[in-house]
């Protein structure tokens, strides 16, 4: 049952990541992979909220499986982030590659902390 | 600019160029920056924009969304299975998530190089395997929230170690995978 919830969450999260990336690339012409940045930050914020809600007893573990492991897990990605960073560095955009890593880590962690803090305030 | 060898990760699939049948048809590596081998740094002007910046073609095909979703289900299931098989205790170092992310980064490096240089795969293979399976297998959000939980629980040194080790290992993994695959395929081509 839990496994099914993870699968349903992932079946939504992965296409959402793809569509976000498509939309961002259609709107902005830039060297920075903002699409991947965006899904990772939003995924971290949402997972912080969900994990905080479950820890506070406001939601059960099924929500964690559906929205956390499934949706947020598939929405966010480390492989694309790493590959895009490598491609930036290889094509002569080393500073942007370094900035991409720093910005993703900073914003992603900030989002996770913010999500957890909001969850503790609301449900704690 | 568009680098034919390294198209957008999530872009609508385009048929990969036919692999060269022998070394002679391969463009000279030092003359064309877009064909520079992985890891090569071209001197002077920065190379053309990385391939994932290319604008997507109009419209999104439903079958692409479907294979991305199916791949995401496979990847997330594998990640969930790994978490069940090798659970991380509260406050412990999240070795399972770290391993999942590093393995996923290595696999995407191998896969995308093979796909571009050696395998004329059907158009939906890339969105299924790269965007779907490997994108769904690896996770950034769990990494970020694990760091937050460790700090909240007072496990600061574990948190800092995990925070630094994951991106370092992930980038080394993708770099080594791309370089090794590139070298292996080139060796095979020149031996042919």
Shape descriptor of chain A reads globular
Describe the biggest sheet of chain A?
A: none
| Arithmetic mean pLDDT of chain A | 96
Question: How confident overall, as mean pLDDT of chain B?
Answer: 79
- Percent strand of chain B: under 5%
| Proportion of residues in extended strands of chain A | under 5%
Please compute the radius of gyration of chain B using only Cα atoms.
Answer: 19 Å
User: How far is the first residue's CA from the last residue's CA of chain B?
Assistant: 32 Å
> Rough shape of chain B?
globular
Membrane topology (chain A): Multi-pass membrane protein
Binding site for Na(+) (chain A): 73, 76
Pfam family, one (chain A): CRCB
Transmembrane segments (chain A): 37-56, 63-81, 101-123
Describe the protein's topology:
The complex is a heterodimer of chains A (about 120) and B (about 190).
Chain A: H1 2-27, H2 34-55, H3 61-75, H4 79-90, H5 94-123
Helix pairs in contact in A: 1-2, 1-3, 2-3, 2-5, 4-5
Chain B: H1 62-85, H2 95-117, H3 125-137, H4 141-152, H5 156-191
Helix pairs in contact in B: 1-3, 2-3, 2-5, 4-5
In a nutshell, what does this entry contain?
The complex is a heterodimer of chains A (124) and B (192). Chain A is an all-alpha fold and 124 residues long.
Task: Explain how this protein is built.
The complex is a heterodimer of chains A (124) and B (192). Chain A has helices at residues 2-27, 34-55, 61-75, 79-90, 94-123. Chain A is an all-alpha fold and 124 residues long. Chain A has one domain (2-123). In chain A, helix 1 (2-27) packs antiparallel against helix 2, helix 2 packs antiparallel against helix 3 (61-75) and helix 4 packs antiparallel against helix 5 (94-123). The longest helix of chain A is centred in the C-terminal third of the chain and has 30 residues, at 94-123. Chain A is globular, with a radius of gyration of 16 Å. The mean pLDDT of chain A is 96. Chain B is mainly alpha-helical. Chain B has a domain at 62-191. Chain B contains five helices and no strands. Chain B is globular, with a radius of gyration of 19 Å. Mean pLDDT of chain B is 79; it is low at 1-5, 10-37, 39-43 and 48-58. Chains A and B meet through helix 1, helix 2, helix 3, helix 4 and helix 5 of A and helix 1, helix 2, helix 3, helix 4 and helix 5 of B.
């Amino acid at each position: 049952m839990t496994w099914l919830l993870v699968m349903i969450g992932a079946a939504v999260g992965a296409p959402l990541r793809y569509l976000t990336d498509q939309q961002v690339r259609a709107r902005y012409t830039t060297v920075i992979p903002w699409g991947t940045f965006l899904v990772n930050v939003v995924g971290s914020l949402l997972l912080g909220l969900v994990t905080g809600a479950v820890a506070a007893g406001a939601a059960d573990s099924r929500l964690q499986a559906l929205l956390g492991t499934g949706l947020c897990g598939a929405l966010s990605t480390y492989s694309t982030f790493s590959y895009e960073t490598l491609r930036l560095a290889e094509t002569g955009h080393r500073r942007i590659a370094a900035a991409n890593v720093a910005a993703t880590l900073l914003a992603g962690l900030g989002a996770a902390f913010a999500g957890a803090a909001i969850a503790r305030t609301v449900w704690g | 600019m568009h680098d034919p060898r390294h198209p957008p990760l999530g872009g609508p699939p385009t048929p990969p160029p036919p692999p060269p049948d022998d070394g002679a048809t391969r463009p000279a590596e030092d003359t064309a920056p877009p064909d520079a081998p992985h890891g090569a740094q071209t001197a002077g002007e920065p190379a053309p924009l990385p391939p994932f910046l290319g604008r997507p073609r109009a419209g999104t095909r439903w079958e692409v969304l479907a294979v991305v979703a199916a791949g995401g289900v496979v990847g997330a299931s594998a990640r969930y299975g790994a978490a069940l098989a090798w659970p991380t205790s509260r406050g412990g170092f999240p070795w399972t998530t770290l391993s999942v992310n590093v393995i996923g980064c290595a696999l995407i490096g191998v896969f995308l190089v093979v796909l571009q240089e050696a395998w004329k795969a059907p158009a939906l293979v890339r969105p299924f395997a790269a965007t779907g399976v490997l994108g769904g297998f690896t996770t950034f959000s769990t990494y970020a929230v694990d760091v937050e939980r460790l700090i909240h629980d007072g496990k600061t040194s574990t948190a800092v170690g995990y925070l630094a080790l994951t991106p370092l290992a992930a980038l080394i993994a993708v770099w080594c995978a791309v370089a090794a695959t590139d070298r292996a395929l080139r060796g095979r081509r020149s031996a042919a």
